[in-house]
Amino acid sequence: MPSPKEPKKEAVQTSVVQPLGPYSVAVRSGGFVFLAGQVGWDYESQRLVDGGVEAEAHQALGNVGSVLEDCGLGFGDVVRGVVYLTDLADWPKLNEIWGSCFTHLPPARSAVGVAGLPAGACVEIEVTAAER
């Protein structure tokens, strides 16, 4: 049982996306759902998708969509996103793919250039969604 000073939080179980380490795929707390970052990992084949940043971004956003769906939410409920890229020159490609998922009132977003990502990925995407 959490102490009175700790926020109430609940780990979300998902049907497709499974943690690849000691973390929760998503946590509910305070009217929000916080999703762990997703790379372009194909959970069926247990490997990173081929095709570079575009294929990885599509898969990562597909993984995000699966987690949101398991939480009873969708892309329209996302209020904040963070994108990590190993090459900021890929920003225009990522922007186009992002825009295809967030067509109405896109969430606030940050982009960060990083030296490396898990599994050798080019892109990682994390989001926070507001519960309805």
Describe, in plain words, how this protein is organized in 3D.
This protein has a single domain (10-14, 24-130), classed as RutC-like (60s Ribosomal Protein L30, Chain: A). The longest helix is centred in the middle third of the chain and has 19 residues, at 52-70. Helices cover 23% and strands 27% of the residues. The model has no long low-confidence stretch (mean pLDDT 94). With 132 residues, the chain is an alpha+beta fold. The chain is globular and about 45 Å long.
Question: What is this entry, summarized?
Answer:
This protein is of the alpha+beta class.
Which oligomeric form is depicted? single chain
pLDDT average, as an integer?
A: 94
Strand content: 25-35%
Structural class, from secondary structure content? alpha+beta
CATH class: Alpha Beta
Task: Count the beta strands.
Answer: 8
Number of domains: 1
List the helices and strands and how they pair.
Layout: E1 10-11, E2 26-29, E3 32-35, E4 41-42, E5 47-48, H1 52-70, E6 78-85, H2 91-101, E7 108-113, E8 123-130
Parallel strand pairs: 6-7
Antiparallel strand pairs: 1-2, 2-3, 3-8, 4-5, 6-8
Helix pairs in contact: 1-2
What labels describe this entry?
132 residues, alpha+beta, 60s Ribosomal Protein L30, Chain: A, 6-stranded mixed β-sheet, 2 helices
